[in-house]
Design brief:
With 416 residues, this protein is α+β, with helices and mostly antiparallel strands. It has helices spanning 5-14, 27-35, 58-70, 89-97, 99-117, 141-157, 160-170, 177-185, 211-224, 229-233, 279-299, 306-329, 337-364, 370-377, 380-384, 388-398; strands at residues 45-48, 74-79, 82-85, 130-133, 136-139, 193-194, 200-201, 242-244, 252-257, 264-270, 275-278, 399-404, 410-414. β10 and β11 (275-278) form a beta hairpin. The mean pLDDT is 85.
Length: 416
């Protein structure tokens, strides 16, 4: 793989004026050796990120080091701690001593890099819900059903702990909250592979989540991130959203019962301003405020060209796809077929990674008909037909914060 941006910056800071990258057969390096094969190179400074850049084996590396030093060239190894000159014998001996381990690591890294270019999964066991078959993942039926069941419940409740609790009560299998949170953010369950270099490739194996479901999960995760973990999973619709209008402190949801009565009384309490309001009244006022204000707020979004933004993203994706097809069909130059094949593989890999980022950005865009959706959910009977968990999910979809005073009057802060 070519040097990262950080490595290129290190080379520039060390004094390198030109960076040459070989993919596979050291074509550029061989040309440089031939150029100075019978001449002095006293005016040449050669910077490398590792001695393994000079050869595939320890004897070849030592031979190349002596080749440059005998011609008077300055040979430097660049690391995060700075550049070290191999003209210093102690420095050279230190680097040569660790060369076998570096060569072994490089060989392993090259194998992993080639697997990435070929869209193969990373080494190690397949994630839960999949099994490794050849060079890809396939669904493992029973575990996959458990993962899918969790996703279904999370998409219903909008709460990790609520979904986990429901699964653990219904099935013999037990899922931890930490594991469930990792499933929600894992690209694997979306049919994608994300590699150590940060590149994501889409549609490499069967998915357990659709793109629409994945985008919904990402939105909810962003909405829930400022909310305390206990409030995130609390069953009440207003949990984690309500604050006091006077002191701006979060309101606590408390409940009480009367002796020998089954009815539960719930309140929102501000411990700083020392008042309580009826929870049901606050929820009713919140729903009424949403029904009144949401259509007006979403109508302002008509000025945002969401469809236009989406079209531009899709156009760039199509351009990249055309370039990928061209890379797959054009013949390699006869003078360096291996180098060109590897370079084309890398270009394809990077273009597919760019398309994955563009696709994720497109999926995260709000729907173009958001105003119409707002009209549909701005009807009080619609809210009354929902459970509190469902009300909570809808409120967190649109509302950032609800401020309430001692008279249960509410002010809404929307995300848009």
């Amino acid at each position: 793989m070519p040097p990262s941006q950080k490595e290129q910056l290190l080379l520039q800071q060390s004094g390198a004026t030109e960076t040459v990258v070989d993919l596979g057969d050291r074509h550029h390096y061989i040309n440089l050796v031939q150029q100075y094969g019978s001449a002095e190179a006293a005016d040449l400074r050669l910077y490398v990120l590792s001695l393994t850049d000079l050869g595939e084996t320890a004897p070849k590396v030592e031979q190349q080091v002596q080749f440059w030093l005998q011609r008077g060239a300055e040979l430097w190894v660049v690391t995060e701690d700075g550049a070290q000159s191999l003209g210093d014998r102690e420095v050279l001996e230190t680097w040569l001593a660790q060369l076998p381990q570096e060569l072994k690591g490089r060989h392993i890294a090259e194998g992993h890099a080639q697997n990435r270019l070929n869209r193969k999964p990373p080494p190690g066991p397949a994630p839960f819900g999949y099994r490794r078959v050849g060079n890809t993942y396939e669904l493992d039926e029973q575990p996959a059903q458990l993962v899918r069941a969790f996703f279904d419940r999370f998409l219903l409740f909008g709460s990790i702990r609520g979904a986990v609790k429901d699964i653990n009560q219904e099935r013999a299998d037990t899922i931890s909250v930490t594991t469930a949170r990792r499933w929600l953010s894992s690209p694997v369950y979306r049919g994608d592979l994300k590699f150590k270099d940060g590149v994501t490739l889409r549609d490499t194996h069967p998915a357990l989540l659709s793109r629409e479901e994945a985008a919904q999960i990402d939105r909810w995760s962003r909405r829930n991130s400022p909310i305390a973990s206990r409030s995130t999973s609390a069953p009440r619709a207003l949990a984690g959203l309500v604050v006091c209008q006077t002191c701006d402190r979060p309101l606590r949801i408390v409940q009480a019962t009367r002796k020998n009565q089954a009815k539960v009384y719930r309140y929102l309490r501000c411990t700083t301003c020392r008042y309580s309001v009826n929870y049901e009244l606050a929820l009713t006022n919140t729903i009424q405020a949403v029904c009144q204000q949401l259509p007006e707020r979403t109508s302002n979004l008509d000025s945002v060209p969401i469809d236009s933004i989406k079209s531009r993203i899709e156009l760039q994706i199509e351009r990249n796809k055309v370039e990928i097809v061209t890379l797959d069909t054009e013949p390699a130059p006869e003078e360096m077929p291996t180098e060109s094949d590897r370079d084309r593989q890398l270009q394809r890999y990077l273009l597919e990674g760019e398309n994955a980022k563009l696709g994720e950005k497109r999926d995260q865009l709000p729907p173009g008909n958001l105003a119409a959706i707002a009209q549909a959910v701005s009807i009080e009977p619609f809210w009354r037909a929902l459970s509190e968990s469902e009300q909570r999910a809808y409120l967190r979809e649109f509302i950032k914060q609800i401020s309430i005073n001692s008279d249960a009057e509410v002010k809404l802060e929307f995300f848009f």
